[in-house]
């Protein structure tokens, strides 16, 4: 098991946002966190990334705590997208990827490849503010994967995207898995999880109510009972 979440709890004052989460996430698989608004998905991701202190519990990636040293092995697409509107796509990505320790030449090569793949090579010199929200999201996805992380964390990657862009991003996620990336993503929609994941956890009010392999869960509960509000 690559990612181990061991009895993790997060309290904000009296309020418990994540309650005794205990998960084993296998390497080179896609793992889905399914849950409605306020279920605790983003809070879990922030703890995974070390952006938020845990109240209790332990998280390890390949047996090591995730800290400053290991954080470069991780890619993150945050729920609140954060790009600099006045920068060009090229300058934005060069800026962000250099923080990850990449050389400019390698950044530009990777960026070119991704823009081709997303069928928007002409965006290289466009300003972020000139792009639609969906296209900004694709740029943010590129910034999460450009340094070829071992572990990729995607917070609601498909929200706000049109069906064509959803498909494009799903294909990219599946290819990254084939290349050996471990991927954890959150969604409100069972359909996304069913299509991509081998393993999943359904969170409700910070508690894992169902977890395991998709095949076993479907066998035990039947598809109908797995519908989440909004799906
Ligand atoms: P969504 O799908 O709406 O993004 P989520 O599953 O990602 O939901 P979280 O953002 O993790 O949910 O929030 C879980 C709960 O913790 C919510 O009730 C939220 O209001 C609360 N919460 C999150 N961050 C804080 C904070 N910094 N202080 C207090 N409460 C917080």
Automatic annotation (TrEMBL):
Recite the UniProt keywords alphabetically.
ATP-binding, Nucleotide-binding, Transport
One annotated GO molecular function = ATP binding
- Annotated ABC transporter domain residues: 3-230
The record's similarity note reads:
Belongs to the ABC transporter superfamily.
Know the name of this protein? ABC transporter ATP-binding protein YhaQ
* Organism the protein comes from: Oceanobacillus indicireducens
First and last residue shown, out of the full length, are: 1 to 231 of 299
């Amino acid at each position: 098991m690559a990612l181990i979440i061991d009895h993790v709890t997060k309290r904000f004052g009296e309020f418990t946002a994540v309650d005794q989460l205990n998960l084993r996430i296998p390497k080179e698989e896609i793992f889905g966190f399914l849950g409605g608004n306020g279920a605790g998905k983003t809070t879990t991701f922030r703890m995974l990334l070390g952006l938020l202190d845990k109240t209790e519990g332990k998280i390890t990636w390949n047996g090591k705590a995730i800290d400053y040293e290991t954080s470069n092995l991780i890619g993150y697409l945050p729920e609140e997208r954060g790009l600099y509107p006045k920068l060009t796509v090229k300058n934005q990505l060069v800026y962000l990827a250099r923080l990850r320790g990449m050389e400019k030449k390698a950044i530009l090569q990777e960026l070119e490849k991704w823009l081709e793949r997303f069928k928007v090579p002409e965006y290289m010199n466009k300003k972020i503010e000139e792009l639609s929200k969906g296209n900004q999201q694709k740029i943010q996805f590129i910034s999460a994967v450009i340094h070829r992380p071992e572990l990729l964390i995607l917070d609601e990657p498909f929200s706000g995207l049109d069906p064509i862009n959803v498909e494009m991003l799903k294909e990219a996620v599946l290819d990254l898995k084939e290349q050996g990336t471990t991927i954890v993503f959150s969604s409100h929609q069972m359909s996304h999880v069913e299509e991509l994941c081998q393993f999943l956890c359904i969170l409700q009010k910070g508690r894992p109510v169902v977890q395991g392999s998709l095949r076993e869960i479907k066998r035990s509960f039947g598809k109908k009972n797995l519908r989440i509000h909004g799906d």
